[in-house]
Amino acid sequence: MELIHLENVKKDYVIGEVKVPALKGINLSINAGRFISFVGPSGSGKTTLLNLIGCLDKPTEGKVFVTGVEVNKMDRKISAKFRGDHIGFIFQNFNLIPVLTVYENIEYPLIMVQNIPLEKRKQKINDLLAKVGMTQQRNKYPAQLSGGQKQRVAVARALVTEPKLVLADEPTANLDHDTAYKVIGLMHEMKKEFNTTFIFATHDSKIVGEAEVLYTMEDGLIIKVQENKRNGEAN
Amino acid sequence: MINIIKIAWRNLLRYTRRSLLTSFMIAAGVTLVIIFSGVGNSFKNEIVGVITNSNVGDIQIHKKGYVGSIDNLPLDIAFSGNGLKRIEGLLDSNPEIKSYSERIRFGAMASNFAQTTNMRLTAVYPEKESQTCPALVKRIKEGDANPDTFVKPGSVVIPQNIATGMNLKVGNDIVLIATNKDGSVNGMTFKISGISENIMGPQGKDGYIHIKDAQSLLRIEDGEITEIALKLHNFDKLSKTYAALKNELMQIQKEKTGKPSFEIHTWEELVPFSTIAKIITLLIMVVRVVLFFIVLISILNVMMMSVYERIGEIGTIASIGTLPSKILALFLTEGVTLGFFSAIGGNLAGIVILMIINAAKFNFRFGDARTEFILAPQIPITEISLSIVFVVVISVLASLQPALKASRMEPVEALRHV
User: Fold this and answer.
1) Distance, in angstroms, between B412 CA and closest chain A CA?
2) Fewer CB near the terminus (10 Å): N or C of chain A?
3) Contacts of A85 in chain B (CB under 8 A)
4) Looking at the domain covering A29-58+72-227, what would its CATH class be?
């Protein structure tokens, strides 16, 4: 089942009076339940592409479909609701809310975005805390956690709403080798458990090695698509 | 909403020093308003109470044109006959009026047989005057201060400075000479029954005699009076009662001209102190305006900094699906929470300080007056409620711009912010 479909997507940034093309015409289809990685040098357009798929930005030209919905036509409010319902985000710098505990950070999207009742919330969060191995740290604040622990919480927060799609921009960039592998392993497990599509933008060879499909980008274009048969079937 | 308040509260605690400093500024402003309001109103009420209770009454009624000529104390602009009866009927039937006192006010020469000076005399029925101006007898510092008998027929209460200047004592005789309405002059001998001080000390030239003596001295035969002073049961209903009475009095027209026959004034229109009272009210307003700017600038500053410092965080919560309206609510709640708790703190501090002032019983007096005024500020409940509402409303206004800015941020741009 097709989850994401991009048709001739272009994105230009205007810096001063200069127009800088970030994406130069991307055509792409990604099925549900995949583990996808976009790789390429800085400035190749990986993050821009993730932002468009994640409804955080709008293309200058072209169409972006997520779950069959043309997301580039949504206004800010509908776009926010769509993200809350269908997309999870994992960031390079973890981006946890510093005034909330581990438990409350995971709880945040359920309260502020999806308005899930208390009992159901508790159950979901406790399950996820156990899955990401953070039950013991549930009452700690982000400042009291290591980088790996923070990213585990971020993974739990991204998955707690049971999104169809999780977008992760350089999720292991601030983690050491062992921790990065653990986090990737965790995401793999989550993908299997929830049939969630994970899309990464990364330089990290660890993630590259784990991806089922690898899209290599350069100068705003996808220049190569590789499937990793060890990890799954290519799209 | 509870979660929004929880997050707002924690964000305030996140920058403890800044929040405390801002809160302290707002609280100090609120405290200032509460103290100023409590003390200012106490001072105002104390003086107004003394003025209305010892001399002026709450409301006065005169024949039309009297107040315009009040410096001359005219005898020819007076109530008499049916007009007086109709007014007394109105006053007797009005449940808001506690008492009223008929007066004849006139100027006279006072002589101790060696010296002569001018005096301003108010002729009254002592028992009615004491009910209308209950503090009057407290000003009688020597002699008979009985509320029902402080001026008996044949006696006079003279002001302290005339007594001192003319070397007069209680029991001495003086002659009062007055010009009658028809222009003739008459004189009568009176025994000094009391010596009174003015509200503001031993000044003024106001004396009191019995109304029957005034009628004899002024050769008034048909029961004319020049003034009616009124005391209300509830001073707070002054404006309402005044308006109702005025309306009723205006119905009584001069038969020939069809114009109103009487005029009615509240104490404020008759006493210069009302200007000072208005200045006190104005000063309280000024302090409120200062508070307005303290709250506005403090909260605006804190919320702008808060939004600027948390752009990345705003990007995060927006990207995970928080609606713009909830981001707006988060920041508004933060500002309002800061304002609300600061206002509560400021009010508590203000109440404690007012209680200390009350317990200390600060007294003050004017000039050499022996009457002491006690500074007894009441806890201004209305002002307290108003200040909380006021601060919360300004907090909303001050937080609105930063909160709108936060809610309108594009998540992708906010996430890029370092």
Assistant:
1) 5
2) N
3) 321
4) alpha beta
